[in-house]
């Protein structure tokens, strides 16, 4: 049994700030403390006092239950398990108290891996953190490309995507959306392949657009990705699934990046991929990565994924950059671009979950998910209610600017 309490943290996350005899975990600006030997909260308070790290008056004992970390898409976990007490609510991330009665019901199954992950909250875990990146001197050519991102063009494409009614991977709407996106990318001058993929026993597709730089040495490929498909979990392939935020917002972002970078002569290759089968379990991205031979994997310098970039979950417009150790350098680049070319706040996490960056990371390719900030969550994800009404164009615009700047910086670099 553990005892814990949530309180705001003013210090970086090191065990140094935890009172002796206590464990901790960070979720953004909240640090959760609990006794490392199962002692009650009074003991934590005494240890804090004698250790010179007094807890604040008003801190209260947490529930006596093993703390469990949930990572969810939207509010899917809470929708399915409304009776599970939530100790800390950070939208994408929850700390919950799982009692015996819940454990019997909440156990791993395919659906959970798609919609949420449940795991013990281990001591010393940084689930995510807010960072304050330092801006660099803007590069004029990169600044011009960031400034070329158009709110009108973005809105037009997003409206078209939502207009298909559903982009369920196995639907006619998806096929039409994929064909329209492929046409749009071809018209911009890219070499486009619509590659079939398996989604369970059905068939869907990835749309892959490429522009190979004329003179390349050494070679590097900058990859921008987003999933094109949508889903209505309660309905079937024909049910309304406008998927405005998830993931019309990211797919429209990719097509806007394609437009902005279409005419730029770069030193490195640009590849843009709209995946199918994401909502059913990352089928498109998994099969894509599997199709790459070792040399093709090594060619990839960076993968910037967009999935849900248009729902405001934070007091100020915020992007969460989610990757793994292999992508720390790219996270830093994205954070610097955010500080230099946008007014976005930045959160980071090294706990990759459930989007198309994961298969790349699993293959040791530097990939980062760029997603709306994590303090709260889009309630309407995976329902008919994920409509244009919930879209915040300014947030999407900021994230697309950051990604254009990051891609352009890498594409124009000497080496
Ligand atoms: Zn998504």
Written description of the protein model:
- By secondary structure, the chain is of the alpha/beta class.
- The chain has two domains: 4-128, no CATH class; 140-412, Aminopeptidase.
- The chain is built from 13 helices and 16 strands.
- The strands form two sheets. The protein has a twelve-stranded mixed beta sheet, with helices on both faces. The protein has a four-stranded antiparallel beta sheet with strand order 5-6-4-7.
- A hairpin with a 2-residue loop joins β2 and β3.
- α5 runs antiparallel to α13 (393-412).
- Residues 7-11 and 57-65 have low confidence and may be disordered.
Outline the secondary-structure elements.
Elements: E1 4-8, E2 22-27, E3 30-35, H1 41-50, E4 67-72, H2 76-80, E5 86-90, E6 93-97, H3 100-103, H4 110-115, E7 116-120, E8 125-131, H5 140-147, H6 151-162, H7 172-187, E9 191-199, E10 202-211, E11 221-227, H8 244-261, E12 269-275, H9 283-291, H10 294-299, E13 300-306, E14 318-322, H11 328-341, E15 345-349, H12 357-362, E16 367-372, H13 393-412
Parallel strand pairs: 2-8, 11-12, 11-13, 13-16, 14-15
Antiparallel strand pairs: 1-3, 2-3, 4-6, 4-7, 5-6, 8-15, 9-10, 10-12, 14-16
Helix pairs in contact: 5-13, 6-8, 8-13, 11-13
The structure holds zinc ion.
Q: Would you state the CATH class of the largest domain?
A: Alpha Beta
In CATH, the topology of the largest domain is named Aminopeptidase
**What is the CA–CA distance across the termini?**
53 Å
Classification by helices and strands: alpha/beta
Secondary-structure arrangement, i.e. CATH architecture of the largest domain:
3-Layer(aba) Sandwich
- Count of helical regions: 13
Estimated radius of gyration: 22 Å
The overall number of domains is 2
- The average pLDDT is 89
Helicity, in percent? 25-40%
Question: Tell me about the biggest sheet?
Answer: 12 strands, mixed
Task: Give the percentage of residues in beta strands.
Answer: 15-25%
Runs in which pLDDT lies below 50 for 5 or more consecutive residues are 7-11, 57-65
């Amino acid at each position: 049994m553990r005892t814990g309490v949530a309180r705001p943290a003013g210090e970086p996350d090191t065990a140094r700030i935890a009172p002796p005899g206590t464990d901790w975990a960070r979720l953004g600006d909240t640090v959760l403390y609990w006794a490392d030997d199962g002692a009650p909260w009074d003991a934590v308070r005494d240890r804090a006092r004698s250790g010179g790290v007094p807890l604040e008056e008003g801190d209260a004992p947490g529930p006596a239950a093993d703390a469990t970390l949930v990572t969810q898409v939207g509010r899917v976990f809470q929708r399915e398990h409304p009776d599970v007490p939530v100790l800390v609510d950070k939208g994408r991330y929850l700390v919950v108290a799982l009692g015996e009665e819940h454990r019997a019901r909440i156990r791993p199954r395919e659906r959970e891996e798609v919609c949420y992950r449940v795991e013990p909250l281990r001591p010393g875990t940084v689930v995510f953190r807010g960072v304050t990146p330092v801006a660099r001197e803007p590069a004029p050519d990169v600044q011009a490309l960031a400034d070329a991102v158009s709110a009108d063009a973005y809105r037009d494409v997003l409206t078209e995507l939502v207009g298909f009614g559903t982009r369920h991977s196995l639907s006619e709407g998806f096929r039409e959306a994929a064909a329209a996106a492929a046409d749009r990318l071809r018209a911009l001058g890219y070499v486009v392949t619509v590659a079939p993929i398996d989604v369970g026993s059905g068939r869907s597709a990835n749309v892959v657009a490429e522009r190979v730089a004329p003179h390349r040495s050494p070679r590097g490929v900058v990859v921008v990705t987003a999933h094109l498909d949508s889903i209505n979990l309660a309905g079937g392939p024909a049910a309304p699934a406008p998927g405005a935020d998830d993931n019309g917002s990211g797919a429209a972002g990719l097509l806007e990046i394609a437009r902005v970078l279409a005419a730029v002569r770069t030193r490195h290759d640009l590849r843009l991929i709209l995946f199918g089968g994401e909502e059913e379990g990352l089928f498109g991205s998994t099969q894509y990565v599997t199709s790459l031979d070792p040399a093709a994997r090594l060619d990839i310098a960076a993968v910037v994924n967009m999935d849900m970039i248009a729902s405001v979950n934070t007091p100020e417009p915020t992007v969460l950059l989610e990757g793994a150790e292999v992508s720390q350098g790219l996270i830093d680049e994205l954070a610097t671009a955010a500080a230099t070319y946008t007014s976005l706040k930045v959160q980071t996490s090294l706990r990759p979950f459930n989007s198309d960056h994961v298969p790349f990371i699993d293959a040791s390719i530097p990939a980062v998910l760029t997603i709306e900030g994590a303090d709260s969550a889009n309630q309407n994800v995976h329902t008919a209610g994920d409509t244009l009404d919930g879209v915040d164009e300014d947030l999407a615009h900021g994230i697309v600017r950051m990604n254009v700047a990051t891609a352009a910086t890498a594409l124009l670099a000497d080496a």
